[in-house]
Design goal:
One of its GO terms (cellular component) is plasma membrane. By secondary structure, this protein is of the alpha/beta class. The protein is built from ten helices and nine strands. The protein folds into two domains: 114 residues, Pantoate--beta-alanine Ligase, Chain: A,domain 2 (2-Layer Sandwich); 158 residues, no CATH class. Strands 1-2-7-8-9 form a five-stranded antiparallel beta sheet. A two-stranded parallel ribbon has the order 3-4. It is elongated, with a radius of gyration of 27 Å.
């Protein structure tokens, strides 16, 4: 009887120890989790501070650019100045500015557009040049038009949704169209923007394919020549751009994109902050009206900088693109 009691007592002691081990392990896990949460919160807070500092520098740069130059091109300081440097021990900050007005603006096809029918033709031309389905342009026209009666067309999606019939706020909204696959979007996105419908196309930063979307008669060689003629200074005026013989010989033909410019108002700042194995990426939308620069919004669901195809001066500003040795040099 006594032996049985001793055996039962031993089992109780072992159970108590097992419970204590489980409780201690759980407490240790929760402590490690709390430490990691605190580290992540501190990292995000510091990364946001560095991002805001980069936004301040970009704002000053765009202000000075407006004060001292008359056009915007790839070889200006705001475009060529890319930075990857350590703001503190163990930290790296990468930042660069990209022009958004050298791209085809999807909102030209909206009901706010001055000539959405012509803009759709220009978009179809761009789609053809990039080997994508022209039906995307037709669906986009309907997406913007509240009288198109396509509300029910997306009920079979998971989850179901309906067109907003408003301007697109981001190019990624193009993925809501049934005719746009992710592969098609990946090919198109670098050539596109989602800006106010009245925004002009900057011919000093537009790539060859977007230049060709201006009019049906601009062939490959003419578009390449128009881009080459920009050289490092860019066109001083749209008249200089339109003086090319391709426009003079087709002066009676309509242009798909009539609103052209040699400078830009909308820019995107890409910042990437890293510390140890953590990375914080942000794009900031900046609007410049004269010399007044305003931050319109931020997007943290990004993975890389949004370069214009054919940008001749950009370097890789990701914080893992350069070694510590290179940074010290």
């Amino acid at each position: 009887m006594i032996k049985n009691q001793r055996g039962f007592a031993l089992i109780q002691v072992m159970l108590v120890f097992a419970i204590l081990i489980i409780v201690a392990a759980k407490m240790q896990y929760e402590q490690r989790l709390q430490i990691e949460r605190t580290r992540q919160m501190l990292f995000i807070s510091q990364a946001q501070a560095y991002t805001e500092s980069a936004e301040g520098v970009a704002t000053v740069g765009l202000y000075l650019d407006a004060e001292y130059t008359d056009n915007d091109n790839f070889y200006e300081a705001w475009s060529t100045t890319t930075s990857v440097y350590p703001p503190a021990d163990g930290w790296l900050l990468g930042a660069e500015l990209n022009d958004l007005q050298g791209r085809f603006n999807l909102n030209w096809l909206s009901t706010d557009g001055s000539n959405r029918a012509n803009a759709a033709k220009g978009f179809k031309r761009l789609l053809t040049l990039l080997e994508q389905d022209e039906d995307i342009a037709d669906e986009l026209l309907n997406w913007f038009d509240s009288e198109s009666s396509i509300d029910q067309d997306y009920n079979d999606q998971q989850p179901p949704y309906a067109p907003s019939y408003h301007l697109m706020a981001d190019v990624s909204e193009l993925l809501l169209l049934k005719s746009v696959s992710y592969d098609a979007y990946s090919e198109l996105a670098p050539y596109l923007s989602a800006l106010p419908a009245g925004s002009a196309l900057n011919v000093n930063t537009a790539p060859v394919a977007v230049i060709q979307s201006i009019a049906s008669y601009i062939d490959d060689s003419s578009a390449e020549e128009l881009v080459a003629n920009r050289e490092e200074e860019g066109y001083d005026s749209t008249s200089d751009f339109l003086d090319h013989e391709i426009f003079e010989s087709n002066e009676d033909e309509d242009r798909y994109i009539s609103s052209l410019s040699v400078n830009s108002e909308w820019f995107e700042l890409y910042t990437e902050v890293s510390f140890e194995n953590r990375v914080h990426r942000t794009t900031s939308l900046l609007y410049r009206n004269g010399s007044d620069v305003t931050l319109y919004g931020r997007n943290r669901s990004v993975s890389e900088a949004n370069h214009i195809p054919g940008d001749p001066v950009k370097i890789d500003t990701s914080t893992d693109a350069q070694s510590d040795e290179e940074l010290e040099q």
